[in-house]
Amino acid sequence: MIGSVVERKLASQPSTTPRFTAKPGIGFPAVQHRSKSAFARAREETKVNNADIRSNEVPVVVTTQPPVTAETKTISTDVEDLRHHISRANEQQLASMTSEEIEKERKSILDQLGNDAPDLLKRVREARERKLAREAAQETEAERNVMNSEQTERPPIHHPKPTLLSLGARPGILRVRSLESVPQSGKVVTLSLCPTPPTFSSQRSCTRPPSRTGKKIRFAEVTPKDIYVYESAPVSPKRQVFALPPPPDKPDSSIVSLGTFKGSIPSKRPHPIDSPSDDKESAATATGDSKLEEGTPEHIRRRYFPDAPENDPNLEWMQASTSPDSSELRFDLNGAPIPPPLSETLPSHLGLHHHAEGNRAGYTLDDIFLLSRSTVPAQRASMLGVLAKVVHRLGTQFKDGNSPDKIAEFVGKEGELRKQALAAGLSAISERGSVGAMAVEVVWECLVVWDDRTADVEGIELHLAPDVISSTHPEQLLPIIAGMLVQPSLPRETLEQLLAIVYRFAQESNELANSIMTAPHLVSAIIQTFLLTPIPPREDSFLPDPMALRLLIILASASRSNASTLLEPADALLRFATLLPDSSPFPTPLATSLLIQTLRFYRILASYGLYSHIATSASFYFSALGSYVLSPPPLAPKTLSQLRAAWSSLLEVWIVCATDPHATTPPHEILWSQVTAWGWESEVRLLRKDLTEAEQDWEVWSVVWNVEAAWLEGARINGVKGGEKERAEVLDSVQPGFEAEDGLEHKVVRAALEAVKQRLGTLATDSPGMKQALRLIVAPTRALSSAIRLWLACLPPLKDVPLGSPPFTLPFGELSKLCAELVTHPVWSLPQKRGMYLQVHLRPLSSLLVYFHRLSRHIPGTGPDLWLAQGLSMITRLIPGDESAAIAIEENCILPVTPQITGFHVQLPSVATDILKPFFEHTIRPSQNVYFGPLHVTTESISRSATLRLPGGAPDLPEEAKTGLPLPRDWLTAPLTHLLRSGTSPVFRNLPTGWDASEVEVVRATLLLLHVSSGVLRRWGLGVYALGPAEVVFACMKVCMLEHGVGGGASGMDSSVEVFRDSVVEKLMQWLLHPFTPKQLPTPPPSPPTTATCSEPTSASLPRFTPQNYLEIASQTYLSQTHTPFYQFYTDLVALYTSVSFAHPIFGALLIPVLAMRYPSDYRRLVWCEAGDGSRASSGVGGDVREYLYPVERDGRILGAYLQALLAGSNAPQGFLRLVAVHHVACSVWPDLQKLARAAEDETRPTLLRLLLNRGDAPAVRDVLLYRQSPRSGFLWPPSCFECDLAETDKAERVEYVRDVISGDMAERVKVIFGWKED
Asked: How far apart are CA 1094 and CA 1239, in angstroms?
């Protein structure tokens, strides 16, 4: 404001200067540098736009009186007067000050300006003198030029009220002080925009004079009201003007209004346009340009390019885009979708408008994928970050279909978009800097966060997304990750994401876990980066990460070879066990977590019999750890339970290793005498005093009971008198708690029992919370199985004394009911429906069944047949890892069966079922090299276990890597399979020494076992586990396929005749097929069921296709290994029947089931049309006779074969097959039966009737003419369906039909057969 109002020398005639002297506009707004403030830019722009703007030049104030001539003399400038005045004042003040005051002020100045203040003031004075000399020379030269120029007078201009149009467009300058408020001296004041004296030429440029010599500066009296401060304008020029604060409520005349906004917000606001001159704006207004909307292409053309034609191609860049905007969904920089209406109105300063096509804000997925390959690192990193956020939303949507952030446009496309995003991240993961970090985040979102629900699943190969994992090419990615882990420039978050990616790979499969172990420097880099951190930690170092220990646990669980490789870094991890949480330099929660994971890692190694020597070499530290666990430490309840469980589980495995020191690697790493001296079982027993019956302590109760059971099992082998003293000590400790109603152990067992029942009820329904309920059922089930294991361990050796009273009381009745419900529960099919990785949660359930089956034989009232039924049903529920338990059930329960178990009344020859043991063991464990570690380690498992993880849903496993569990439904027929493939069977190549049995003996034992198992299972209500009709028929088919001489003489398998002709084999097959053979009744049933009508059965009345009732499915267990279709097998069977059976009745009955109408017509055509002897079977096998009769046959060739068979005279089929042929022929020719069977009219039907009546013999014609079925009663069996009980209306209809189709004479013959005469 200083310098705005200055009194000039008087001039009589001020020169006239054009009002606007700025250069004409060039068509584009002036470039605004954001480095300058808005106020500085406004001051610079006023130098160009001089119209109606408050001038920074000093106006010339002249008077109307003539000028007064005066002598020329030197007049000092105002600056010099002011400087002299200040100098005199300073000298006077110094004269009045004492020396102390002067020194004090001097020190104050030096403190403010520094010690070099005198030099600074000297330099300032010298610079001022040089400047004055230079200005004096310039003024002298200017006066000389003025005297030589033409002098013109300027008319006086009265002071106008300034208009602030241009200032209104400047944000932040809204309130100004009018020049009218400047005090006047009573003179007429005129203003000139040119500061030159009146003698200056009018053509001289309007510039500020070089010097202010001879001019006085007057300071206006500025009040606080003269200054109004607003917020500074934003850096972006896209800020909307109407977004400024509103005017005050009270009217203020000093505020300049900017007008009322009447337009609409454009989709993309143009840059603010500053008018280069008000003259052009006035001219445009005069020509009607004011009617155009500001910012439009035409407005810009008229204002900046007035000479350009309207359709100038050089101005096409101003036109709006004519291509329609894509309706594809767009995202903001946070990965959130932008609604289409909002994307059209968002301003451009948000950074969402880019160089892609269209004017809408945001980025489509195609834009994101395109820009994620940008060559600009910052842009590429930004788009990868957006892509990671989008993938996060897609993953949430994929896991929860009801997510509030669901994107409807991508429903069902999540998997494909996941692969695309993963490819984009992998393409940039090797880049450095922020690009690489953002690429890691994308891969982390696609692999880890997408499957975060399984992050805590251990003990099983996930196999969740094999196609996604394989697309990452782990063999190339893992070395890249190893290199990135050693880069110090990567942030901690990125390193943790890389660790999580490797952890996810290890979870997927054992194959990938082995790849991680073999990747160069990867495991060592992980251990060095995340575990071997400095102790104590430095400020610039990272803390250890427990996830790295979890990774080592999974790698060691994958295979014994991996565990052996990890023995080398195992010593370094002892730091986390020796530094207890209360003395650790790390935070207590972190130190506790590291300790828990270290103990779990040592337990995994001990499960292979490895690294158990650490219990001896570090016994002092583990003794201190035991004291710390028993203290108890000040930890959260959940954390304390986890610590106690990890410590106790490690002790359990070490006790098992000491039970048989020869099973460890190397042998004798830990001895039973050492375990006895350390007293681990006593320490664990002390944990009981701090436990409650609450659910959070169930896991600790389980491991405590397992430790005591393992101790007793080892004492039975290594203790004196089979561990008699040890059993007594344990019983004295636990028996009161189990016996008393208020005992703690009794309460825990009861509570766990009720929890299992309740959660099984939840799992019985197909509810969304089934997976969570399956997880929650693990803890109570483990508690129950551990209690039963302890009960069994407390039993004395069976060889010593018979069991008198139980060691302690358990709810035997409720446990029996629970296991009976569990064995038939649909929870076992949950992994096939919801993911095979859920099978790991079934391990405690199968363990409970195993231990209860061992317990059941000791419960009074459990007979041999009940125990056999329990074993047959429970063995089919065992899963991988339970192979040893399945073999024990097979050896001790199933093989010792006798015919007397099912109440045979016919004396059978002695049948030894123990000869089937090699076949069943191979069925349970096909490869001796594939040994899955059990849930509870044994002395056998620590030496033989190849892996501790279940296979999950591993696809396309080779035969040598497969497991036999869970057993198929027809596992009892496995010996027949090996007999049929005796030339390639691995069982016959590895038969035990001394095994000698014939083919007939193996078949007898197998059929006897099938018959006994079927009988006991149905007797105890477990018929669902017995073989169904189709499975029994296929087993008998395999027997009939065994030709004599199979196996060769070297194997001792020769037979002089076909196996199916053996009398015992015939009897056993007859008993097996008897329940499924349709009965030929002489009269209709006395009380036929209402559902067994003669009409065609509906799809709801017939059962769905299952292995029990459909041969093509039942045969897959056998035929899938050779990829042979069942039709080919059946063709060979029919050919064999024709060549060697000689119409064997049982062999012929086996051909009939596939003649049911639910099977393809190829089977019926094969038997009736192509096989010469196939239609001679007299009986059939099937469940429901309607399956053979409905729907009525429509194949003309098969109908002709039916008729031809009926016309064969003495060779015509009898029994069941004759009923089938008569039924289909009669329903094809008689109108009343066509209506009943809803059969369509066919042109072949009259031909059938004509052939029957012309060529048929009396029995065939009579059966077809008199055949009937009633729609209101049950099915009519022969001979009732052939009796002459037709209604009179039906007889008349049939006679008329014969008359119309054949002739009247034939109709009369039919009347005779009907015994019917016309009235």
From this structure: 13
